[in-house]
Amino acid sequence: MARVCQLTGKKRITGNNVSHSNIKTKRKFNPNIQEKRIFIPEEGKWIKLKISTSVLRTMNKKGVSAVLKEARKQGYKF
User: Fold this and answer.
1) Other CB atoms closer than 10 Å to residue 6's CB: what's the count?
2) Hey, which residues does 17 pair with through a beta bridge?
3) Which of 1, 10, 22, 40 could form a disulfide with 5 if both were Cys (CB 3.0 to 4.6 A apart)?
4) Is the pTM of this model over 0.70?
């Protein structure tokens, strides 16, 4: 599963592990991506999306339709 959010484009970033003795080694930070089936009431259909949990919280707050409408304006297709 590709670790990229289909709505926001969040993806893996790199950083450092820092030990107690301040030695730095490279590491990766993955976004919290979940695969969800979401019902769109206006269209009467289900879609399957890989979205970050922050987008899921936004959907709960604003509503599914509003979030998908904003995403379509920015050019995302699903």
Assistant:
1) 20
2) 25
3) 10
4) yes
